[in-house]
Design a protein that fits this description.
By secondary structure, the protein is an alpha/beta fold. It has three domains: about 50 residues, no CATH class; about 80 residues, 2-Layer Sandwich (GMP Synthetase, Chain A, domain 3); about 170 residues, Rossmann fold (3-Layer(aba) Sandwich), CATH 3.40.50. The protein contains eight helices and 17 strands. The chain has a seven-stranded mixed beta sheet, sandwiched between helices. The protein has a four-stranded antiparallel beta sheet with strand order 2-3-1-4, covered by helices on one side. It has a four-stranded mixed beta sheet with strand order 5-6-7-8. The longest helix is centred in the middle third of the chain and has 14 residues. The radius of gyration is 27 Å and the shape is elongated.
């Protein structure tokens, strides 16, 4: 192969010239030497700089895989409303009726474009019931629906058809860990398979973290995940099975996480009951942009009615859940009025 050898100081200008003349072979990596850079050429033209060299062995770049969205576009299919995400080696897809392909074909496309996928599940209907379960249909693959999901160096075992778990909240779990302080007592309501307590326990030292979960299947997974990851934890983590409204004798907490956006107002009274004299509460809701201010004032009034005083309150977007609707986290510091 032939190449253009230029001084390092001229490398950027040389790259621009080669591209403008259509002579740069983009499918191969350039070679970087101590004082020179050698660019792969697909021809020889009128070049104002550098030296032509022959017999060079350039390393070929790996071809970038096309995405499912690229393939659907090439087929002339409008993919609006189509999306998928990964839980371990399982891809979970939302497929609108407007896509005129059989589910098996969609599953095959996802598996071909997404390396490491063993199983493709397609969502059927909305989440229902206290534990937010959803029906799925297998579009591709084999084996059990149980998997191991990796997040922040932790391994989380779960069956997404049996328990609620949202991998898109990975950043939020790390954010809560960053907002927490070493040595705090932290309560996580609706702790599920344990991602919030375990992520906090990995990044914070000397904390006592308690997760409470009513779904027995999710609770069993949380115990397994605690055992799997115990060597990575810097804090004490414990899980309790039960309805948080009926749990007693667990003391007071410096920080309470409430990662359940629906039906949550009923649990604010419980949060106040478990809060220390000053406590930070992370409260989640699904809201449109124009509803946030009203919800903020509503929460301040509700805290006051329940026997607390809001010392500070901030909010942030955690993610989008639909057209102009967001998952909002209210981080507020409250002071409990002693009776």
């Amino acid at each position: 192969m032939i190449g253009l050898k230029v001084n390092r100081k001229e490398a950027e200008r040389a790259k621009e010239v080669l591209r403008s003349k259509g002579l740069l072979m983009e499918s191969y990596f350039p070679i970087h030497e101590e004082k020179y850079v050698i660019f792969p050429l697909n021809g020889i033209g009128d070049l104002p700089l550098g030296e032509i060299v022959k017999g060079i062995q350039f390393q070929k770049r790996k071809e970038k895989k096309k995405s499912v969205y690229d393939l659907l576009k090439e087929m002339g299919i409008d993919h609006r409303g189509f999306t998928y995400y990964l839980v371990g080696d399982i891809a979970i897809a939302k497929v609108p009726e407007s896509i005129p392909l059989e589910l098996k074909e969609i599953g095959r496309l996802i598996a071909e474009c997404q390396s490491g996928v063993r199983l493709v599940l397609v969502e059927r209907g909305k989440r229902v019931g206290e534990f937010r379960r959803r029906e799925y249909e297998i579009a591709f693959g084999y084996g059990m629906t149980e998997t191991i999901h990796r997040e922040h160096g932790l391994r989380l075992k779960l069956d997404p058809t049996e328990v609620f778990f949202d991998p898109k909240l990975s950043r939020e779990r790390r954010k809560i860990a960053e907002l927490s302080s070493d040595g705090e007592r932290i309560l996580v309501m609706f702790s599920g398979i344990g991602p919030y307590p375990l992520v906090i326990g990995k990044f914070r030292k000397g904390c006592e973290i308690l997760g409470i979960e009513a779904n027995e299947i999710a609770y069993r997974y949380s115990l397994e995940n605690l055992e799997i990851n115990k060597k990575l934890l810097k804090s004490k983590v414990k899980f309790v099975l039960g309805d948080v409204r009926e749990v007693h004798g667990i003391g007071e907490f410096d920080r309470i996480v409430m990662p359940r956006p629906r039906g949550k107002e009923d649990f604010l009274e419980v949060a106040l009951r478990f809060s220390s004299e000053k406590c930070t509460i992370h409260f989640y809701d699904f809201l449109k942009e124009g509803e946030i201010g009203h919800r903020r004032r509503e929460l301040i009034r509700l805290i006051s009615k329940l026997g607390g005083e809001t010392l500070s309150i901030e909010h942030r977007r955690v993610g989008s859940i639909g057209r102009r609707k967001y998952r909002i986290c209210f981080d507020f510091l409250i002071k409990k009025r002693r009776k």
